[in-house]
Design brief:
This protein has 344 residues and is mainly alpha-helical. Helix content is 71%, strand content 5%. The protein contains 14 helices and 4 strands. The chain has a 4-stranded mixed beta sheet. A hairpin with a 6-residue loop joins strand 3 and strand 4.
């Protein structure tokens, strides 16, 4: 990314759109940057996402299917990135002295809007969803959601098996878009008690408002990015280095993307710590909702085997990058909680 900001490569890419009006440059320049970065990452992405997954027995996709998914992913990322940069540049041009006061809340609102829109706009681009065709299980899951205080609009099955053998479930959306989604792999391979346990865990996240809290953290992070950009773009030497005349110049696009990437990298360890804490809370909630520690242990043993979970990761990597406790940790904690849960 820094190469695109500070070297001739960025200037060469910008020259491709230089004759267009400012709004055309603001839209097209970030797409060109994203395209170059995607091409540079493709060999590693293909190995990690397709070759390695097939070697380990997870992927059920053809290479053609993988490439098609990457193309859709790029299209979504290109649209979101281009619109975001266009909005940034437009507000900076319209409000030269006070653009951060407008851009910071706009960035936070974009994060919130994506939380609402993703289940109904983005998820269907990658998976097909159908209603759960098991009235008894659906009724049980809806009852579980009601007891958790997290009513859902739909209980759906995603056709995950056409891409992977991994098993999972999740609760997506905010407010009226909230729904339970089961991977068809989980539905086909697990017992109803185990499915209820996995869904109870996901409902536990909603019960503790982890999604809302995570969204607020992301919104604060988006606003913080804007403040950092404000400081950087007030530095004449930096503007000269990237060839930009000010915050309203589309040439700032690579710097904007660079700052976002740095924030994401810096936030990884904190995010991992927070995620593990929330996962433990959701585990406890799943025990309280199902009162079935036996299903908890069998479900996590099955998922660990099915997903080839790392049972003893290096301590440093675990601390910095692992978003979930290890399966042995989770099972040990469940055994410790079980007497208390059962006695309530």
């Amino acid at each position: 990314m820094s190469l695109l900001v500070f070297t001739r490569l960025g200037s060469w890419l910008y020259a491709l759109v230089e004759e267009r009006p400012w709004w055309g440059r603001a839209l097209l320049f970030p797409i060109l940057i994203l395209g170059v970065l995607t091409l540079l990452r493709l060999p590693l992405s293909f190995w990690r996402g397709h070759v390695r997954e097939r070697r380990w027995g997870f992927s059920t996709q053809t290479a053609r299917g993988w490439w098609f998914d990457r193309a859709k992913g790029f299209a979504v990322a290109a649209v979101l990135t281009a619109v975001t940069v266009l909005a940034f540049v437009a507000l900076a041009r319209a409000l030269p002295p006070a653009w951060p006061a407008a851009v910071a809340p706009a960035a936070a609102f974009l994060v919130l809007a994506l939380g609402f829109a993703a289940p109904i706009v983005l998820e269907p681009l990658f998976n097909r969803f159908s209603p759960l065709d098991d009235p008894a299980l659906e009724a049980g899951l809806r009852s579980l959601a009601e007891r958790a205080g997290v009513p859902v609009r739909d209980v759906l099955v995603a056709d995950a098996s056409r891409r992977t053998r991994r098993e999972n479930a999740y609760v997506s959306g905010l407010g009226a878009t909230r729904r339970i989604v089961l991977f068809d792999n989980l539905l086909n391979e697990s017992e109803p008690r185990q499915i209820r346990l996995v869904v109870a865990h996901e409902l536990g996240h909603r019960r503790a408002r982890h999604v809302e809290r995570g969204t607020l953290v992301a919104m604060a992070g988006a606003a913080a990015v804007v403040l950092v950009l404000w400081a950087l773009l007030s530095w004449p030497a930096l503007l000269g280095a990237i060839g930009a005349s000010g915050p309203g110049d589309p040439r700032v696009a690579p710097l904007l993307l660079l700052v976002v990437s740095v924030f994401e990298l810096i936030g990884l360890p904190l995010g991992a710590v927070l995620s593990r804490r929330w996962e433990r809370e959701a585990d406890r909630s799943s025990l309280e909702l199902t009162r079935d520690p036996e299903a908890f242990e069998s479900a996590h043993r099955r998922l660990a085997a099915a997903n080839l979970a790392d049972l003893e990761p290096p301590r440093v990597l675990y601390a910095l990058l692992f978003s979930h406790p290890t399966p042995p940790e989770r099972i040990a904690a469940a055994r410790a909680w079980a007497p208390d849960v059962i006695s309530r």
